[in-house]
Structure formats: structure tokens, C-alpha cells
């Protein structure tokens, strides 16, 4: 079967760094996505990892370890607008995306 | 103009009514998907279609049906709506074989459905 786990909620302070973890079990792994979703809005693409290592994109970075079934999303210099849900999703050779339940991040002043 | 559109954006209906949610895309993608989102449960796949003649059930297809009228249109129907189908529904598209990121999905704005 397929299973994706990520924390339900996290809280961090404006200007700080936060790391959101995701662990997964899946067959036919092809890559891992992180999406950002503000309340009531559509998910939007943040990052994609297919090989082990760190992908950096501005304030956001994403890491993947395929052997450990583990990824994290790192958000630096947090801003109030980063308050949102962050969805970890795994794609496989079935052509589908399997989503975790999402992590709701609250950034406080 | 938005690449993936959904109509209606909001709908309130009564138990037992038939409801159709529509999705259109101008991205030229072959693959289309319907998800529902409930608090604490993430996005769950209802149905998906890899081309006009292809329809597949997702993890929660009971109580739903779909129609792929054209490459650009994919509709979701609730034949007899029930209250536990109250949720936020998203349509998404992806392009097969366009390289990486493989199977990146692009989402419509969502339809908030309430069944009383």
C-alpha cells in the first residue's frame, strides 16, 4: 500500500526557520512534491524532488532521501504570508499523486 | 484567464438532489483528476482520466460518477447527494511526458459543496 505521514500542525515565529517533515511508503516511486495551500484556495506547486539531496528555491528548500522514504520542506525567514497548509505528495508509475493530510503552519509575529 | 476553471464555485443543495460539477482547462493537458478535501484528511482522489476514452476510479469513487466530454472538459456528478459529501472539490490537470517534474498537477480554484 501507500502511506504518507506529516505533522498536522506547526507554529513558528516570523523571521525564524521551520522544517516540515514527511515520511512515505510507496511502490514505484517517481518523485515527491510539496504544495502550498492557503485556506479555501487551490494548492500551488512549491518544489519537486526525484533524486536524493537538497533543492533550493529562494526561501524554500526541499530535501529527499529515497532510501529512508523521507523528505522535508525548509522555510527560511518566515513571513506572515507563509501561514498556510503544506502538502507532501508522492507520484508513482501509476501516474497518480498520493497526498499526505497536510501540515497547517501558523506564523506568529 | 485561469488555465483550469471550475463551475460552480459554491453550491448548496439538498439530500437526494443530482449535482454536476464542471471542470474546463486550456492547458492542453491529457490527464484530468477530481479530488475532494475534508478538514484533516488532505486531498483524496475520486476519479481520474488519462485521455478522453480513459476513466479510472480513485480511492473514494462510491457515490460519484464522471464524464470526460472532451480533452478540455471533465465533469463530476453526484447522482443523489448526501450530507457526508459536503466538502471542497478540486479538479486538476497534468501533462504526460513533458519531462520533470513528472506529473506536476495544476489545480482549479475549487467548488465548495454543501449538502443539507
Overview features:
heterodimer; A: 109 residues; mainly beta; 61% strand; B: 116 residues; seven-stranded mixed sheet; four-stranded antiparallel sheet; 11 strands
Structural summary, described in words:
Chain A is mainly beta. Chain A is built from no helices and 11 strands. Chain A has strands at residues 3-5, 9-13, 18-25, 29-37, 44-49, 53-57, 60-65, 70-75, 84-92, 97-99, 103-108. In chain A, strands 2, 4, 5, 9, 10 and 11 form a 6-stranded mixed beta sheet that branches. In chain A, strands 1-3-8-7-6 form a 5-stranded antiparallel beta sheet, with no helix packed on it. Chain A is globular, with a radius of gyration of 13 Å. Chain B is mainly β and 116 residues long. Chain B contains no helices and 11 strands. Chain B has strands at residues 4-7, 10-13, 19-25, 31-38, 42-49, 56-57, 65-70, 73-78, 87-94, 106-107, 111-115. In chain B, strands 2, 4, 5, 6, 9, 10 and 11 form a 7-stranded mixed beta sheet that branches. In chain B, strand 7 (65-70) and strand 8 (73-78) form a beta hairpin. Chains A and B meet through strand 4, strand 5, strand 9 and strand 10 of A and strand 5, strand 9 and strand 10 of B.
The portion of residues forming beta strands of chain B comes to over 45%
Low-confidence stretches of chain B: none
Of all chain pairs, the largest interface belongs to: A-B, 23 and 27 residues
Shape of chain B: globular
List the topology elements.
The complex is a heterodimer of chains A (109) and B (116).
Chain A: E1 3-5, E2 9-13, E3 18-25, E4 29-37, E5 44-49, E6 53-57, E7 60-65, E8 70-75, E9 84-92, E10 97-99, E11 103-108
Parallel strand pairs in A: 2-11
Antiparallel strand pairs in A: 1-3, 3-8, 4-5, 4-9, 6-7, 7-8, 9-10, 9-11
Chain B: E1 4-7, E2 10-13, E3 19-25, E4 31-38, E5 42-49, E6 56-57, E7 65-70, E8 73-78, E9 87-94, E10 106-107, E11 111-115
Parallel strand pairs in B: 2-11
Antiparallel strand pairs in B: 1-3, 3-8, 4-5, 4-9, 5-6, 7-8, 9-10, 9-11
